TrEMBL record:
Protein name per Swiss-Prot or TrEMBL: Fumarylacetoacetate hydrolase family protein
Residues of the Fumarylacetoacetase-like C-terminal domain: 27-227
Keywords: Hydrolase, Metal-binding
Pfam families xref list: FAA_hydrolase
Superkingdom of the organism of origin: Bacteria
GO molecular function: acetylpyruvate hydrolase activity; metal ion binding
Keyword Cytoplasm: no
InterPro entries in the cross-refs: Fumarylacetoacetase-like_C (IPR011234), Fumarylacetoacetase_C_sf (IPR036663)
Length: 231
């Protein structure tokens, strides 16, 4: 047996202070997981069960890369996020055991075609075109738990061309990392290489060609993305 065409390379993310790479299996994203962001999106921030959407693994963009302004949008947004990297498989994981499945943490930027997302939302349609497009998941180097532990508080922020746009604390997450892992694993079996983008604080806004977008999280450093011309 042979392939009818060559398989594409396995998507990977970097490991902090290492030449090793982590293969990416799936990217799960938690919607509206900061109360202030839920309000700015016109939704009630009450603690209802969390909801999830996905991005393809090959949407990954590494720190320092340039992202072309994507097609079919006039409202291209940034979203700073803490990313959880799963290192141990599991189903029906309890909250008490959830953190044992985490390999490490990274900084992320959930790039969003906001106009397409909102148009789909208003019609009750999936968000894929607004969220799951090419090069829409900026993921910084993964920092192993063995070195940094499990961050549950600390500053998370984002600036565009040096101007602060998002400024919050990880302790403002509506659903904590253990809760997110447990809830998700009761619906979908988690595997090593799964990434979970845990939601963004308030202050999301547009990016333009030529902008440099920098995301920082206490203990994880910062990552930067430049927005290039449309292709």
């Amino acid at each position: 047996m042979s392939y009818v065409f060559q398989p594409l390379p396995v998507p990977t993310v970097a490991i902090a202070d290492s030449e090793d790479l982590m293969p990416v299996r799936r990217i799960f994203c938690v919607g509206r997981n900061y109360a202030a962001h839920a309000r700015e999106m016109g939704k009630d921030p009450d603690r209802e069960p969390p909801f999830f959407f996905s991005k393809p693994a090959d949407a990954v963009v590494l720190d320092g890369e340039t992202v072309a302004y994507p097609p079919e949008t006039q409202n291209f947004h940034f979203e700073a996020e803490l990313v959880v990297a799963i290192g141990k498989a599991g189903r029906n994981i309890s909250e008490d055991d959830a953190l044992s499945h985490v390999w490490g943490y990274a900084i992320g930027n959930d790039l969003t075609r906001r106009d397409l997302q909102l148009a789909a939302r208003d019609k009750g349609r999936p968000w894929d075109f607004g969220k799951a497009f090419d090069r829409s998941a900026v993921i910084g180097p993964v920092h192993p738990v063995s070195k940094i532990g499990h961050p549950d508080s600390g500053a998370i922020g984002l600036s565009v061309n040096g101007e602060v746009k998002q400024d919050a604390d990880l302790n403002e997450l509506i659903w904590s990392v253990p809760e997110i892992i447990s809830i998700l694993s009761h619906s979908i079996g988690l595997q090593p290489g799964d990434l979970i983008m845990t939601g963004t604080p308030a202050g999301v806004g547009p990016l333009q060609v030529g902008d440099q977008c920098t995301v920082s999280i206490a203990g994880l450093g910062e990552i930067a993305t430049t927005i290039g011309p449309s292709e």
